[in-house]
Amino acid sequence: MSNALRRMTNYLGLTEDDGTVQESVNVRTKPAAPAKRQAPTLSVAPQLPVVVPTAEPAAIDRIVTITPRFYSEARAIGEFYREGNPVIMNLSDMEESERKRLIDFASGLVFGHAGTIERVTSKVFLLSPPNVMVSSEDKTAAANASLFNQS
């Protein structure tokens, strides 16, 4: 039993194999003094920074509006967003459980591409790529504006 244990510890590198084979005899011998091991030295080559050529930001020629009904339509949202298009997701036609999954997907999508996600209404979200700036006006100023006052 101890022979198998010694072979296993030698294999794992926990002890050093002294090259002797022990017989499984019931004779107790004095264990040899443990050999001093030197700590392995690691040599790490310096890693040069990777320079990725960036293209000029694409001109935004459209904003894509998608009203998915099922989670399986998430791929279309991802493809439009990866092309650099802002995407408006209207999730009002989805069930609650699939809506939560799609919001999680969209959050990961914009995080991975360094964009932003903003809630427009309770079920409408705007996914903006990093090259798109969205200005958010003060809601009180918009509420006080007489532009929409029909009285």
Provide keyphrases for this structure.
single chain, 151 residues, alpha+beta, Translation Initiation Factor IF3, four-stranded mixed sheet, 4 helices, elongated
Written description of the protein model:
A hairpin with a 4-residue loop joins β3 and β4 (124-128). The protein is elongated. The protein has a domain at 64-128: Translation Initiation Factor IF3 (2-Layer Sandwich), CATH 3.30.110.150. The model has no long low-confidence stretch (mean pLDDT 76). The protein is of the alpha+beta class and 151 residues long. It has a four-stranded mixed β-sheet with strand order 1-2-4-3, with helices on one face. The chain has four helices and four strands, in the order αβαβαββα.
- Look up the CATH topology of the domain at 64-128: Translation Initiation Factor IF3
The termini sit apart by: 94 Å
| DSSP summary: helix tally | 4
Number of strands: 4
Order of strands side by side in the largest beta sheet? 1-2-4-3
Uncertain runs:
none
**CATH architecture classification of the domain at 64-128:** 2-Layer Sandwich
Basic shape:
elongated
Radius of gyration (Å): 32 Å
Compressed to H and E, one letter per element, the order equals HEHEHEEH
Helix content: 25-40%
Report the sheet with the most strands, covering strand number, pairing sense and barrel closure: 4 strands, mixed
Q: Proportion of β residues?
A: 5-15%
- Under CATH, the homologous superfamily of the domain at 64-128 reads SepF-like protein
Name of the CATH class of the domain at 64-128: Alpha Beta
Structural class designation: alpha+beta
Q: What average pLDDT do the residues reach?
A: 76
